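Progress against Task 2.4 (sequence-to-structure conversion) is shown through the following example record, which the project officer requested during the mid-term review.
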Amino acid sequence: MVFCGRKLCSWVFVSLCSLFLVFTGPVELFAAEKTLRVGVTSFADTLEPTTQYFSWVISRYGIGETLVRFDEKGTPKPCLADSWECSEDGKSWTFHIREGVKFSNGNDMTPEIVKSSLERTFKLSKRASTAFFKYSSMEVEGQSLIITTPEPTFNVPGSLAEPLFIIVDTTADTDRFAMDGPICTGPYRVESFRASDTCIAVRNDHYWGGDVPFDRVEFKVIGDQVTREMALQAGEIDVAYNLKSGNAPTFADSSKFTTQSLPALRTTLAFMNQKGALGSKVLRQALIRALDRQTYVDVLLEGGATVGKAPIPPSLDFGFDDIVDPNSFDQDSARKLLSDNGYRDVDGDGYVEAPDGSPIDLNFVIYDSRAELGIYAQAAQINLREVGIKVTIDTVSYETMLDKQEAGDFDLIIWCVLAANTGDPENFLREYWRTYSKEAPNSNKAGYSDKEVDSLMDRLAMEFDPAKRRDLIVEIQQAIVDDAASVFFGCEVTYLFSSKKVTGLKLFPMDYYWMTKDVDIAE
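C-alpha cells generated for the chain above:
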C-alpha cells in the first residue's frame, strides 16, 4: 500500500492520536483541568451553613455569598444586594436585591428566595442569628427586601455580611446541604466533600460576577503546621492558610513564593468559667498576673503578635492604648494575692488549695487547628505552676471545643476570635460578655455577669453616633479588664503564603474570603 502527500500525513496523525488515547485517555489529549490546590486546617464536619461556624467554610471556599460583603478595609459593600438604606427611626432597613443572579443549579435568585433563606437561618440557628439582630418583620416589595427591627439597630448591613447569613436556594433539597453542599451563588460549587478531609469545588457555570478561572479547586485538610509548610514548599499545594511568622523564612525566596501579612482583627483569649473555682476574682487576678505574655509573643511566637490586654485588638481604633490593665505580669504580686486570701499549699505538692481546703486543678480546653493556641496554653501552664496554680490541658478538635464551650465544660477555654465580624465590635462584646439569659441567649457560658456592662451594651445597641459608640466600647472593655473576666493572650499577625504563580489572592481583615473569582494562576 502506498501513501503520499496529505493522505500519508493524515494517516500518521490519526494513528498517533489513537496510540495517545490508548495510553493517556481523551482528557489529557486536549487539556488538563485547570486546578488550584489549597492547604487548610479544618473545622467543618458538615457544610450546612446554619450549623456552628461552618458557614465560614462555605464563604471561604467561594461557594456562598451574602447580601453585603466587606472590602479590604473592612467597609461594607454591595454583593447580592446592590444598595440599602435605613429609615429615620433606625428600625427599617431596605435592601435592593441584585437582579440577574442565578444559583449554581441555574435557578433565579429572587427577593422571595432571599427572604426564605434568611428566615431559614433564623429558624435553624435562632440563638446565633438573633445575637446579631432581631427582626419583627421581613417583607418583599418588588425587588426590595424590607427588614424591620423592634428597636433601632445600628449595623444590620454589617451583620448580614457575616457568613451565617449566606443566601441559599430554599427551593432545592435542603436536606442534602450537609454533605453535598448548599446551593449558593458563589463562583464555585461543591462537587464532593469528605468531612474534615477534603472539599472539591468546581466552577459555577451560572456565576453572575464574571469569568471563573478554575475548573477545580481542591481544599486539602493538612492539620499539622509543619506538614502544611512542607507541602507548599514541595509544590504539592499552591496556597497554605493558617501558617505563622515562624514559617516565613521558608518562603523568603520571592521568585518562588508570595508572602502576605495583615495586622490581625483576631484576639486570642481564654474565657474563665466563673461557675467553678474561677468564680473567685482573686484567683482570676492571680492567674492573669502570673502570665508573661510579652515573652509569649516576642520569643515563642517570634514577634508574630502583639501582647493582649483587652477584648479588641489595637488594629481597630477602639481605645486599646487607653485601657489600663490592673493585672499586668507580676508573679510576686500573684503569689501574695493568693497567700493573703487563703490560697496555700496545704499538702506540700507545690500547688495551692482553695481557702476551704479543696484542691484546684483547672481544666484548660484548647483546640488543635491553630498551632499558637498550644504554645500559649503550655507556656501558661508553666507560668501558673511557678505561682502554685495547677492546670491540666485538654486538647480537642474544634468541633469538640465548641461542644464543650456550649456546655460550660471547662475552667479555661481558649478562643481565637474575630473581634469585629460585622465591621464593628458590638456583636463580639455582646456575644461573650453580656449576661446570659434565655431571653438574651449568647455564647457567654463562662458565667460572667455585670449589670453596668449590660446597661452599657444596651445603650450601645441603640447608639448611631460613631464617637459616642467608641466611648461606650472603651468603657465596656475597661470594665471587663477590671473584672479579670478573661485572659487576653495576644493579637496575632495574619500570614498567607502561596506559590508565586498564584495571582489575585488577597488577605481580607474579615477572614471570610479566600477563594474569589479574582484568584488565578499566571500562565
